[in-house]
Structure formats: structure tokens, C-alpha cells
Hints:
GO molecular function: diacylglycerol O-acyltransferase activity
Transmembrane segments: 32-64
GO cellular component, one term: endoplasmic reticulum membrane
Subcellular location: Endoplasmic reticulum membrane
Mean pLDDT: 95
Distance between the termini: 44 Å
Structural class: alpha/beta
Family: Belongs to the diacylglycerol acyltransferase family.
Amino acid sequence: MTKVLGVEFAPLNVPFRRRLETLAVFQWTLSFLFLGFGCLFITISLLFSRFYFIPLLYLVYYVWDRKTSARGGRRFQWIRNWPLWRYFHSFFPITLVKTADLDPNKNYIMCFHPHGVLSVSAFCHFATEGSGWSKTFPGLTPYLLVLAGHFQFPFYRDYFMAGGAIEATSESMRYVLTKMGKGHALGLVVGGALEALEAFPGRYNLKLKNKKGFIKMALTTGASLVPIFSFGETELFTQVDNPEGSRLRNLQNWLTRYSGFSPPLFHGRGMFNYTFGLMPYRRPVYTVVGAPIDVELIEKPSQEQINTLHQQYLMALTELFDKHKTEYGVPESQQLHFID
């Protein structure tokens, strides 16, 4: 490899498979960050061209189809099985670690931690077959819960749903858990957009202290809770330091609160260099799926019942983290921190 002005460039004699892996991650990064706005721009542009009828027809379709993202989505298994996603998975690689069986005759809220900057491993497991979800948990249909704003972008919304993404709203979750039968696994990144601002290598701050909506959802639907910790997710990018109370953090919190999207200032590697770019670093990620916490259905749970299950969940997640942390490179002294 060659280093010029502090930038470490990739060598020319890289194996062809590694180039395919890099290309797969490069396209995902561009798609995740820019495809939505790109589709919106192209759609608006078409309105002022001789192809104006395309966005008009799509508008009619959207009005008819707008609730689909909150009604279980519209997945296409052949898209989830694209070879592209196997190269995407192998780039890091991202490994799905099973510690207990999940009964396909039940429904699950798969509680994913930590958010990381872009939730790379959550996408790999729940929106593709890159890590082999169907072989690891046969009979369970996975869904990736994402901000509803993703489904406001024309065409992009259809592409995102095709992999198994649906809205991260109570309406959407309740529909899948109560109206679509059994055998569904909702991949919920519990910390939400604000937790992305806590994504720093070596830090384990989870916005869980007062997050109880998913607990209430489990109680009112009878869905089992499954703690998941993805070791290595926060190592994939470098973020500009933004301590609480700083001007940057205050601005980020304000933007997240009013837009729904968190704006971390981050960088990873580039397509042809290892020093700077928007792609994640090539570092291994191990997503450990814990044992399910079975939940008794309670139509109107009390606050005490919600608090009790919340504490039970935090204990289970802490136990999962402590049991596996040294195996995946986290110091024995490192602890999880639950924050507001």
C-alpha cells in the first residue's frame, strides 16, 4: 500500500473478490445516503420534461399504496438473495451468532443494539440474506424497522421495502404482530436516531434508560423480546467528537428532533483509500442474538408492569454483553451504560 500526504491508498494488486466486496459496500453507502433524495430530484425533474406523465402516474400509485410500508411492506425474496449482499456481508465480514433457538410459531421484537452511525449490520441481517438469516432462523420472516420518512421518497420507498424494510411506528409494528399470524421477527434498533450520535469506537452508551415503548408493544401484543448486541458496529466509522452540551451536539439534537434523521459528522474509508471517505471500514462485526424473553399478553399494562419488564430486559441485555464481550475484543472492565 502507498501513503501520500497522510492518505493511505489501497494497493493495485487486490484480489478480484475483494474488489467486488468493496464495490458492493460502495453502492450500499451511496444508496443509503443519497438514493432517496436522488430519486426525489429525478422525479421532480421529470415533471418539467416530456416524460412528465411518469411522476404523475407514480403519484396516483403512491396515493393508492402509501399505507403498504405500515402494513407489512412488500418484499421480494429474489432481491434479498442478490449475490451483491453476500459480497456486502463478506467485506467486513458481518457474522450472525445464534445463542438460542427461536420458535417460528411465535412473534418477536428483535431489539438491536447499538445503533452505530448507519446501522450497517442491522441492514445486513434484516433487509438481506447476506448473513444467512433464513438458514440461521428458519421459519422466521425478518423485517427491518426504519424511520417512516424513508418511505416518502418516490421509487426509493419501493426498493427499500423490497428487502423487507417497514416503518418503525407503533401502527406498523402492531399490524405485523397481530394481523399477519406467527413467525415474524421485527428488527428494531431501539436506541433510535439520537443513539447514532453516541457511536464512537470503544464506547457503549445506549439510549435505553427511558425507552419503554417497545416494552409496552411487547406486552400489548404478546410478542417475545430478543436482546441483540452487535459487537463491532461502532468501530465502522469515525465521528467528530460531540460531547453533551457542546454547540455541535445541541445542533445535532435539534436537527434530529425536528427532522427525525440524526446528522452525525463522520467518515470512514474511501473506495480506493483506507483513510477518508463515506464507506465503513473493513472491520469484523459479530451480531450476537440472545435468548428470547417470553411476554404474557396484557391488553392494558400498568406502568409498574412496563417498568418490571423493562428492568428484566436491561438485565438480559447486560448479561448478553458481559458474557460475550471478551470473545469479541471488548475489555473485561468495559460496561454498558444506559443513558437518557
